[in-house]
Amino acid sequence: MNKVLTTGIVLGVAIVFPLVMHVLDQAFYISFATRILIYAMAAASLNLVLGYGGMVSFGHAAFFGAGAYMVGILAFEGVTSLWLSWPTAIAVAALAALAIGAISLRTRGVYFIMITLAFAQMMYYVFVSMKAYGGDDGLSLASRSTGLGVSLSNDFVWYYLVLVLLIIIHYFLHRLLGSRFGRVIEAIRENETRATAIGYPVYRYKLLCFVISGAIAGLAGALIANQTSYVGPALLHWVQSGTLMIMVILGGVGRFWGGPVGAVVLLALEELFSGSSLLGPYSLHWQLPVGVILLAVVLLAPQGIAGAFAKKSR
Fold first, then answer.
1. CATH number (domain holding residue 305)
2. CA 109 from centre of chain
3. Residue 8: how many other CB atoms lie within 10 Å
4. What is the DSSP string of 164-188?
5. Cβ-based neighbour number of residue 81 at 10 Å
6. pLDDT-based confidence at 290, cuts 50/70/90?
7. Total structural domains in the chain?
8. Which contiguous run of DSSP H or E holds residue 139?
9. 133: containing domain
């Protein structure tokens, strides 16, 4: 009952938030909250492979950036319908995850980490070399995607669309993790050798988990491209993978709400210290106080913020 109540309260706050910001004439925070929702989706996709599958992927930005670039490239070519560009972004990201996972999952430990990182950097340089689509400078979108009969340029419409998609994705993940597939994935994480001995096709389960995660990250990439009206190689850089991983660790690895909680906290801290007068002339060094806070969370709450609250609730 507590979980249901907490979920209802969070959902209620998310629904009311843009209306309150509009009344207070703080339109910026509607856009900022939308960005948080998008990164919450991307972090949740990473948490699926990292927290539940036990696969420490350091190349998740490859799928996030690929999804974003597909929307940008199609828009550049004149295709702005979300019914075409968004499924394409998801499909391309899923295919990239299939190709990368098929090779990477044959390794373990640090080798898996380095191979996923290497593939992500390869994709980064591929998009940097695409001079027809901006190269280093990236690609600007003239407008957001179309196809719903309403203008997605309206921040209210865009916010609620992203919120609905995030709810759908989380419901899907909830059902997935509660299914036989989810239980097998967690069993593989706990003891892969035993899962293999029992007779589970471990490689296929892990690969499917990796592909599903990549597809969700591709959708998040399509959304961030529309959010910023810009796509650039930085979306595929290893720093982006690191940011998503920090969100998951901060929120709680293997905790269902770990990704969203980590996204909210990290982006809120970034905005607080980099865009306010708290640090005065030292605001350029906002990473230092954020780093101290992250270190404190890791030391004091090794299961992340969501894990600490769950433990306190019990």
1. 1.10.3470
2. 22
3. 10
4. HHHHHHHHHHHHHHHSHHHHHHHHH
5. 13
6. confident
7. 1
8. strand 139-140
9. 2-313
